[in-house]
């Protein structure tokens, strides 16, 4: 029951903001389950959410709009996957947390929001955020915040932002699926443990969808910034 509740809250956040499922699910599940099992139980249930949002919002974006970010991420994720032993994980995660907090504070002001939008609109700016996201995704599976900052800054239309994030997380998820199958995190047994929680995930997703339709762009951005701030806290204190 508690596992279903956690996954329902996580899917609510994803449906509302376009991200945040793993951010919420893994740390909370890890309080009651071994971390490896926590990752394994929640992970298969992400794919229906990614596919739904990609189907609903993915057509609203074009490859030309997001090409710098995706190319930067694709190149950096390969280096990140092999470079985690080059740097202290704690220092790197806290650096990402600091970058996230600074970006949130900047975006809270109209001038700062316009500045981030101009950065995201440029090829170098988009590529930089893509490299940052890809690097942390490959090294520590923690590349979500730069991707969210990019999507929120580049697309004033929340549905386009969700479309970009859904496509990105779906592609990253497929890569992680191969990795988790290879290293034994995922198995037929863990899949069987995931399936009973699927109704709670769908219920949370539908509830989040209803809620996000009732809030303005300003309310949506407040929710995004709150989740990003939570991500920064978790990054700062994770080992």
TrEMBL record:
InterPro entries in UniProt:
TM_pro_TauE-like (IPR002781), TSUP (IPR052017)
Keywords (alphabetical) are: Cell membrane, Membrane, Transmembrane, Transmembrane helix, Transport
What Pfam families would the database entry show?
Answer: TauE
Mind telling me which residue stretches traverse the membrane in this protein? Answer: 6-30, 37-57, 69-88, 132-153, 165-188, 219-237
- Keyword Membrane assigned to the entry: answer is yes
Offer a single GO CC term for the protein.
Answer: plasma membrane
* Subcellular localization: Cell membrane
Q: Which domain of life is it from?
A: Bacteria
How does this protein sit in the membrane? Multi-pass membrane protein
Report the sequence similarity comment from the record: Belongs to the 4-toluene sulfonate uptake permease (TSUP) (TC 2.A.102) family.
Name of the protein described by the UniProt record: Probable membrane transporter protein
What species does this protein belong to? Answer: Desulforapulum autotrophicum (strain ATCC 43914 / DSM 3382 / VKM B-1955 / HRM2) (Desulfobacterium autotrophicum)
Q: What is the lineage of its organism?
A: Bacteria, Pseudomonadati, Thermodesulfobacteriota, Desulfobacteria, Desulfobacterales
């Amino acid at each position: 029951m508690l596992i279903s509740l956690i996954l329902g809250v996580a899917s609510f956040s994803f449906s509302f903001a376009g991200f945040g499922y793993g951010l919420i699910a893994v740390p909370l599940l890890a309080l009651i389950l071994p971390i490896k099992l926590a990752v394994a139980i929640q992970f298969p249930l992400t794919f229906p959410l990614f596919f739904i949002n990609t189907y609903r919002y993915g057509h609203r974006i074009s490859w030309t709009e997001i090409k710098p970010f995706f190319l930067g991420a694709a190149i950096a994720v390969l280096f990140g996957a092999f470079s985690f032993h080059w740097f202290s994980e704690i220092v790197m995660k806290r650096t990402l947390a600091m970058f996230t907090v600074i970006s949130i504070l900047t975006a809270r002001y109209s001038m700062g929001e316009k500045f981030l939008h101009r950065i995201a609109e440029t090829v170098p700016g988009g590529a930089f955020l893509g490299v940052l996201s890809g690097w942390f995704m490959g090294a520590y599976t923690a590349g979500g915040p730069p991707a969210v900052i990019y999507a929120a800054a580049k697309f004033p239309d929340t549905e386009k932002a969700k479309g970009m994030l859904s496509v990105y997380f779906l592609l990253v998820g497929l890569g992680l699926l191969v990795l988790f199958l290879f290293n034994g995190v995922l198995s037929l047994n863990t899949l069987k443990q995931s399936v009973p929680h699927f109704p709670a995930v769908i219920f949370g997703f539908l509830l989040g969808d209803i809620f996000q339709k009732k809030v303005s762009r300003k309310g949506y951005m407040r929710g995004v910034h709150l989740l990003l701030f939570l991500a920064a806290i978790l990054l700062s204190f994770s080992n």
